Amino acid sequence: MPDDDANAEDPIGAQSITPRQRASVGSDDKYQHRLRLKYLFILAAVFILLGIAVIIIAQPVDSKNLSQLLESLGLSFVAFGVTAIIFTYFTNQLFEGQVAKGIDDHMDKILEQTREQLAEVTMRFDHFVPLFSNCRTLGLENVYLTRQEALRDYSRHLNAALEVAHSATGAGAVKPVLWFVSSSMKGFIETSEKGFDGKLLLKRAAYLVGEGQLTLRVLMTDPNHGNDRAAQEGRNKGDIPNEIRANLAILKVLEVRREDVRFVRRTPTVFAIATDELMLLNPYPYRAEAFRCFTITVRKTPSAEANPTTYRDIYDQYWQHHLIEPWNHADEITATYWDDLGRYEAGLTT
Asked: Same domain for 191 and 204?
């Protein structure tokens, strides 16, 4: 029966490599050597045949001196040919031995290096397989160093989602939903580079809402609680509340409806944007602004759709606990407060 331990230590089947297979390494050198041997044997055979022919020709020659000369020349040719064959034979034996030893040593070295490399790859593979499997199962799409980098990729999905909303018409059309969870929306509104324009995307979304083709939900920190993170981010008291009001005024100028924005009486733990398929998540670090820090995108997985009563992926967890539930408990913005944003609107354009 085969030895399992031996197979485990020899994962590439080194034990089964035959001498013929080993000899195939360096075959070019051996081919050149054998080609030279072939030519030497042919040359030696030509000299032997030529010597025999000269000896035969010398027999009927009348001149004794010429006959002896031709015989001596013929014998020399034959002797040279025989000597060449003997020399070639022993040289070939020596070469074959050295080459075979060199091939064996080289193959052993290659096999040892391959075993070490394969062991390292196997160790890494054992580590990454569960990671990749979990990423697929939980819906992890990508990871980015900053929110800006993530937004450049995510904007393509946002534009596609808005196009789908724009083309969805008719009584039976499903109205897509676009979510934002942010402290002040500053990082989204002010980002405009390499194909991403936060203001333009919000304006398009607001237009589709007006056409009845999209549902928009924006959760922001209540300005009365905006100073809760001021010390953590190293900012002056009052900066964040003013920033929230100013960006809220921008949303109003972009024609976002008052009823589509609500206040949460705390600072969010994670900045989020979500469509019905893909979600961007950017945690707020304790001592820095979130848009400067790492971000992930997660996708709604088929397993979550098949099990709507359980949490099967990251998307579903945050959809329920970071979007739906906070929105249901958030404060609506009063008409009076909305109208008072006029002093922040001065100089703002769409």
From this structure: yes
pLDDT tens profile 84-102: 777 777 766 666 665 556 6
Domain count across the chain: 2
d(CA 28, CA 246): 77
User: How many angstroms separate the CA atoms of 252 and 339, rounded?
Assistant: 10
Across the range 204-227, mean pLDDT stands at 92
Tell whether 231 and 275 lie within a shared domain. Answer: yes
